[in-house]
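Here is a typical protein record:
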Amino acid sequence: MFDLNDTHRQLQETAREFSDKILMPDADRYDAAEEFPQEKIEKLADLGFMGILIPEEHGGLGLDNRALTCALEEIHRGCASTGVTVSVHNSLLSNPLIHFGSEEQRRAYLPKLAAGEWLGAYAITEPNHGSDAAGIQATCRREGDKYILNGTKAWITNGTYANVVITFATLDASLGSKGICAFVLESTFPGFKVGKKERKLGIRASDTVQLIYEDLEVPVENLIGEEGQGFKIAMHTLDGGRIGIATQGVGIAQACLDCAADYTATAVRGGKPLIKSQAMQFEIANMATEIEAARLLTLQAAWRKDQGLSHTLEASKAKLFSSEVANRAARSTVQILGHDGVRRGYPAERLVRDAKITEIYEGSSEVQRLVISRNTLNDRAERSAGTPATSEAQ
């Protein structure tokens, strides 16, 4: 159903080679220094990876979500910090501009984003709540040819380095989701400020900051869609973002499997090759099977998005399962490696830290279970309502 074509495989191979030769050798160094991988992002831009979804007429590769998934898995495998930087830029920033932006907005921003000349961020989360667009407290009001925004956004990936940010604010909190507006803004707009940088357990080389809007002036033409359409735009975008984090989970899990398999193939314990241990063989088999299942769930969600089909349920399933597979794989890898698994500067130690965030951002595992259960139970209820009841006499 969602077979990969030659273009997908070629992009995947290019990303795999880049990951092996460019990302992996420096991943631990960037992690330890908590240094943003600017040089790596520039090289990825040269290869077209910052504009995978952007149409060719705007300077991008014009490919689909399966292509993005294939590329991101390999990038995450090499360095999850670099991977989430590229993922946010493609799926959370570029994608809503492609789908909901005006032609003027697309012409103004997409070419620079595709070339990697500008970096993008997506700002919806606030200090007192997660990705709940209906509960946004940041405000907006129109004054002539501008909107004035006030509020604080939290945990914003790429925030320090972003030239373009898609953000959300409410005209009136009492309107709930109907009052939410979406904007594309530039970091040079008056009133835009970068707040504190977060120091994190994992993905330490990615940039995560607060963004502060103090009477931020946004031109009217930078409203995305119409007033009150922000909630719809946010929900559509977050479904795609969850596919991106599912891909991160698969990439991290694959890196864990590679690390564990390489170690098992060469290590000796108690005078016996570790590869001869049935316990180790079973552990590797379990990891490999779960990773493949997670990969297929993720590709299914991406395929449905490419077909224009509903993919909320599939994205949540992929995100939930892939993130939990990544954490199981990371813990297993540390256990297999023993002392080497907890040693700083060794990939397993970084991977177990990087894996944890996949269960939290873009909707925690608990949120995904709510989405999945509601969709599943609603589907059952609709099918039951449409089926005639069977009497005892029959």
User: Anything to note?
Assistant: The two ends are 40 Å apart (CA to CA). The longest helix spans residues 230-266. The domain at 6-119 is CATH 1.10.540.10 (Butyryl-Coa Dehydrogenase, subunit A; domain 1). The chain has a mean pLDDT of 94.
